[in-house]
Amino acid sequence: MDLTHRQEQILEIVKKHGPITGEKIADELNLTRATLRPDLAILTMAGFLDARPRVGYFYTGKTGSELLTDKIKKLSVRDYHSVPVVVNDQANAYDAITTMFLEDVGTLFVVDQHGILVGVLSRKDLLRTSMGQQDLTEVPVHIIMTRLPKIKICQKDDLLIDASIKLIENQIDALPVVQNKDKGLEVIGRLTKTNITKAFVELVKNEDV
């Protein structure tokens, strides 16, 4: 976030005299409190300043990069996951390949008749199967999928940074977003590297960062 000259002046005043009221900041700059109100609001929302009733403004002591890091650490999966693309565990490899192509995804989540997660299919799984001599319409996906508990998952209340670390450390393209049900884990979303990239780009472009 690029600060205006006046906002930089406000920060310097608060660093030197804080905690300090808005009226006193205005006096230091020979301006009215009303004139400074938008600048103080921006600096407070961006995290450079904090304010306490009847005390005034004080400097948080954080740099722009530290503030950005704080914001990243507060992002949750619930705000950025997308709709899951699933196939039934009784589907065959040919159907799975068709679904992956039509939906333009790199990972399919395999569910049973109750919508409960039982496996994950990647491009590599389907490519490996298609290189064999067998008829793909005769190969059920439950034979070639990765099964629980080897599947990496996340939940909607997880931090986005934690889910990102799972993707990187396990070298996978997507995580199923799940919620606990009596019968097992219900798939309610998917979190991909694209979702995470969009989240970080959106955060950096946000004018309040």
From TrEMBL:
Q: Name one Pfam family in it.
A: CBS
Protein keywords: CBS domain, Repeat, Transcription, Transcription regulation
Which InterPro entries does the UniProt record give?
CBS_dom, CBS_dom_sf, CBS_domain-containing, DeoR_HTH, HTH_11, UCP026546_HTH-CBS, WH-like_DNA-bd_sf, WH_DNA-bd_sf
Query: What Gene3D superfamilies does its record include?
Result: CBS-domain, Winged helix-like DNA-binding domain superfamily/Winged helix DNA-binding domain
Q: Where is the CBS domain?
A: 80-136, 145-209
Tell me the domain of life. Answer: Bacteria
Q: Which residues form the HTH deoR-type domain?
A: 3-67
Q: Does the keyword Transcription regulation apply?
A: yes
State if Nucleus is listed as a keyword.
no
The protein's name: CBS domain-containing protein
Organism in which the protein naturally occurs: Alkalibacillus filiformis
